[in-house]
What does this fold into?
Amino acid sequence: MKFKIDKLDIYIRSIYILLLSVSFMLREKMSFIYTILMFIVIVDLIYIFIKTYRENNYDFKLIGLIFLFLFTHFITAVLNYENNLFKNLMEIPFMFSYIFIFLIYYKSNIDKLFTIYAYFIEIISFIVSTITFLIISSRIVIIFKAKNNHEYFWGVFKERVWPLLNPNTMVIICYISIVLALVLINRNKLKKNLFLKFNIILQFIFLLLQQSRAGFLSFFIMGVLYILYVYEKDISIYKKIINIKLFLLIFISLIFVVNLGVNSILNSDLYKVNTIVKLNKYIDKKKNITEKKQVVVSKKNDNAKYDIDIKKKEVKTDRVRVSFNDFTTNGRSNIWRIAIKMTSNKLFFGYGLKNVEQNYKKFYSKDVVKESLSNLNFHNIFISVLVVGGITNLIIFTLIICYLSYKFILYLKHGKEYDIKLIILLFFGIMLCQLFESIVLYTVSFVSVLFWSIVGYIMYSINDK
It folds into this structure.
């Protein structure tokens, strides 16, 4: 009987993880199915925890912190009961389901589940990268217009390669795919697997093309940690410093050469966008309006009507003036400063997840909201947590990240398993990127689900292997 339950658990979690990974495309249209599956997963997780809490070495300190984090969201929802009480309450079990997706487990199937997910990531990253290169070579730009009027680009847009996702997000997916491919090759003795080897090369090239400073910085820090704690751990610190300098030199040179070459081509007459495909099909339930697909064939100069120079743009609101001239953070520092000002009205417990967007207009202009604040992304995970749940929630979340960092650094120093050390590097890379993005909480996406899956799998590996 236990074997059948284990097998059913793999099916349930695999389906849920895969659906969550593409939720930005499906969740609005399949909300009922997501809700039903969410409660099935929660029941499954509770049942497994009851059955295994004595035999598994669960980290109850971490579990306690996460429950406290979720409880503060409950308090926030109750304190803001006049606005979206039910929706705010429903987000709590939803967060529980994807945060604990790997933190509660059967020992007999968690390795298999993680392997399935790793192969899924390899396939998805390969498909996205390949299609993007085909779109670029075909000189096509595809523009997707989401329900909130936010636009996603696929192809060359504003002289930058857009892979449908935000370039910062795509960089994370690239180095996740690279690391997990190395893990799969090492763990399963797949040194002759040409697909995984080719995908490592493809994802590295794709990473270099994204022009994401946050992504490059996090990838570099991962490389530094690899040199310090994983690669030839017993060599002298002097040799490690030399290796770090060499890695920095090679990495910067590759970024410079690749982007210089690509930009030279994109800015020359050799490359002109021939076709712009606008996919605007969505339904606005409030206005009862359906916009249909439009296909527009144009020359490159027609692309200029979408070419908004954000760095030179200034927006005024009743209370705050937002300038995007900040080159180092692309306007993020202003967004952070205003977000902190926004939080001062609800300092201790915040606005509540579903109440933030309706308060945007009091502090930001419509253009800023449309271009920079979609899906509760304040471009810093700690700022997002502060606005949603207040200073109380921020303190608890910071404790969770600090506790995980402490545990993982200890394993990097004293642990023995090479694969787990590689996966730990992903945690630090993603978290560093979260200083400039906000995609591991609140916005359920490929990266957020993968982040918490990585956390859970590492904790299992440290405590139970």
